[in-house]
Amino acid sequence: MSAVNYLLLFTGMSDQGGHEATVRSFMELPAARLAMIESYQQITAALNIPAGPHISDNRYATLDENSIRLERGSDIFRWEIIKSIPEDFGPDRSSSADSPSRLRKYTVTIEEHIAQEFPVKAYDLSHALETAEAACKQGKFVILPSAPITRLIMARHNKTGKTTGWREF
């Protein structure tokens, strides 16, 4: 029995439905991809987003082999398929050193975003940004420590340099 599973991660944030997140597990990659496409089609239908026969026809969507991102206005939805090997599954004595269940070294980067509003007097929006940027660099605007409004995570394989994309968690 294979210890590899494929997880379909879904996160959605919309004005209508609020924040939603789900994780589904599949034994086969094609089944996970089919579920991802079906879920995408349900969301586009619910939002009345015209979708052609191919996801790439949708101007609101970006996709690659194992992920889809749908963004329209403030509505953002993301599907991502990742390979999963249970942490309690280890190689047996007959496994080779190149076994896919062998632990490898990765570097994980977590980024947290905090925010604070500052009043600025300016001639226009561009001038407001320039004024605030200068005040921040001069230490006049200091963001006080607070709970993060966004957390992002990504991973890098130490040997190959291969990285994941940033994703919110």
Q: What integer is the average pLDDT?
A: 84
Shape: globular
Strand content: 25-35%
Low-confidence stretches: 92-97
Count of DSSP helices? Answer: 2
SSE blueprint:
Elements: E1 5-14, E2 18-26, H1 29-46, E3 61-64, E4 67-72, E5 75-84, E6 106-113, H2 125-137, E7 150-157, E8 167-168
Antiparallel strand pairs: 1-2, 1-5, 3-4, 4-5, 6-7, 7-8
Explain this structure.
This protein has 169 residues and is of the alpha+beta class. The chain folds into two domains: 1-87, no CATH class; 104-169, no CATH class. The protein is 18% helix and 34% strand. The protein contains two helices and eight strands. It has helices spanning 29-46, 125-137, and strands spanning 5-14, 18-26, 61-64, 67-72, 75-84, 106-113, 150-157, 167-168. The strands form two sheets. Strands 2-1-5-4-3 form a five-stranded antiparallel beta sheet, covered by helices on one side. Strands 6-7-8 form a three-stranded antiparallel beta sheet, with no helix packed on it. A hairpin with a 3-residue loop joins strand 1 and strand 2 (18-26). The radius of gyration is 21 Å and the shape is globular.
